[in-house]
Here is the input.
Amino acid sequence: MKQTILFPLLFSSILLFGCGKPRENGQHITITGSSTVAPIVADAARRYEESHPGVRIDVQTGGSSRGIADAMSGLADLGMISRALKDGESELTAHLIAMDGVCVIVHRDNRIENLTRKQLVDIYTGKISDWSEIGGAPGEIIVAGKAEGRATLEVFLDYTGLDSADIEADVLVGENQHAIKTVAGNANGIAYVSIGAAESESEGGTPIRLIRCDGVIPTTEAVAKGLFPMTRPLQVVTRGDLPDASKAFLSYLQTAAINDLIETHFYVPVAR
Amino acid sequence: MCRLRVDWLVRHVLGLLAVVAGGLVLVIVWYLFQGAKPALESGLPRRFFGDPEWQPGSVRDPQYGLVPMLAGSFLVTVFATALATPLGIAGAVFYQFYVPARVSRWNLRCMELLAGMPAVVLGFWGLMVVVPAISRLEPPGQSLLAAALVLALMILPIIALTSQAALSAVPLSHLQAAAGLGIGRAGMIWNIALPAAKGGIGSGVLLALARAIGETLVVVMLCGNIAQIPGSVFDPIRPVTSTIALEMGYATASHKALLYAGGLILVLVIGLLVGGLSFRRKPNHNTVH
Here is the structure.
């Protein structure tokens, strides 16, 4: 009886231990950091690997803070961050890859055209609770907030100067699509999403409208020109001199060749 | 001799597969435990039950109250199962005893299709149809009710299919005997068929319950995700699974460990539930020695 169970156990453990990663020869680039930047870099890496046989690029997420830490310690060749470098991080050099813009959306039937920063703060903290208070048709505002850790939440908090605990949301949503569908299904809804996603959805007929923020019309062009207030840079950071392989991939990331990939993920390419 | 060899082989191959299947669960639990360890050691789980709110990202005053989310998981699961169980069993009885097999087969196919419906499709359907409908009654629409309704639809086929399988396994001779004694169809179903199929139906409900607690995608899309104890079915809730799905991809260090701890608690609850309920029944064990 004992033997019956021992053999399969042994065998399965051998199977499990066999799952290690084989080391490959050739050039290996490790990139870690922000999960906002990672999809772009991962797609670009796949494309780059196809045209550069022998180069293996490993992209891992773990937040901007990991990108900084790994680039500092040399654990990663390149670090990804979705914010500007801070004062204590001057050892690192930042390379701009793309921009992300966040805009406020309401239902298509909503009359509101523009929201000031103050109004936005008041709506999200519950001080303004009805659209009629700011010139819209009467109706209780359904505030859609973003779940903790969402990239757009950070941009929003940065812009409004709020703490995440201040926000009084009626519903919390995850990704952009979820926010867009929430507002599309609710005439009194309000949410904030990546501009690229909102643009393509409203052009595709989803009943949402992008509204002006402190008077600035939200478009990807406005983001590219740096006119829109709720934006942040998506960057790659490096420390000191890089090996040739990493340097070559970094310059590839800064060419227009990956603009289509940036747009697929609803971010904004920068002028090259 | 040769037959013994084949037996030996079959026995060990089956054993291997069985151990891998069962062992994987233990591997996953172990992994969860490892992930949760930093949080467990730092004493943060005490705050799970002490803090009133879930605000892990607040810079000013982070809070880690898990109770509203456990309540959310519990409520949505019980609500959905309470909706789906009578429907599933009633449907199974109807199609098994009141409808010719020709028609019943079609229902079976439909139920199988529903069982195979991808969660994301049901979730989007809920977001586009169910939520706006509820929102007209009582905004915001994304609520305990919306999540429970669609979740009920999701677990309905599990209950219906297992119930019908259990009912069709009731020996025909029992039913014939009942008919021979002059008991009507309703009496036969109530007194003979249902009691005989009780075990199978019970496992179906249990399976559905476990599925409902663990379901994530549909719930994330429909429940509103506000961590609170709801005052009515129209209020948003936030189950544990929803929190993990929303925050895991972005969480760092201690926040991540907390999410692992939340997952671990959920798995333990499911384990207790499944263990507690199924060990009370005596399973048939066929072993040939």
